[in-house]
Amino acid sequence: MKNATLPPLRVSTDLRAAAESVLREGENLSGFVLEAVQLNIERREARRAFIERGLQARDEARASGQYVSSDEMLARLDASLARARAKAGGAE
Questions:
Q1: C-alpha span between 59 and 44 (Å, rounded)
Q2: Predicted structure pTM score
Q3: CB half-sphere exposure, 90, CA atoms < 13 A
Q4: DSSP labels for 15-78?
Q5: Rounded CA gap, 92 and 87, in Å?
Q6: What are phi and psi of 90, to 5 degrees?
Q7: How confident is the model at residue 92 (pLDDT cuts 50, 70, 90)?
Q8: Has residue 90 got a pLDDT over 80?
Q9: Of the four, 24, 43, 76, 77, which is 20 to 30 A from 67 by CA?
Q10: Is the distance from CB of 85 to CB of 91 less than 8 angstroms?
């Protein structure tokens, strides 16, 4: 199987210097760029899946007629947060 390449990128001197300034020991610029591309792909796939789940939930709610109001949901989330804080001993 052949390896593919990404297109070369022209960047400003400042951008290249900024990227090089954050490299870890033993890391090279190519590895940094590859990791950035991989992480961006994962982030975009996660965002797409999140939106798809939201649209599916919307469609299911419309079909069933069962909705939860935003006020009710926020109250549930506030209660859940209060329980978590109390359990952690940091109730505010």
A1: 22
A2: 0.69
A3: 4
A4: HHHHHHHTPPTT--HHHHHHHHHHHHHHHHHHHHHHHHHHHHHHHHHHHHT----HHHHHHHHH
A5: 12
A6: -115, 40
A7: low
A8: no
A9: 43
A10: yes
Q: What would the pLDDT profile of 9-19 be if each residue is shown by its tens digit?
A: 999 999 999 99
Q: Cα-Cα-Cα-Cα dihedral of 34, 40, 41, 44, to 10°?
A: 180
Token reading at 53? 């789940």
Q: Which amino acid is at 11?
A: V
Count CA atoms within 13 Å of residue 50 on its CB side.
6
* Residue extents of the structural domains in the chain: 13-88
- 92 within 8 A of 85, measured Cβ to Cβ: yes
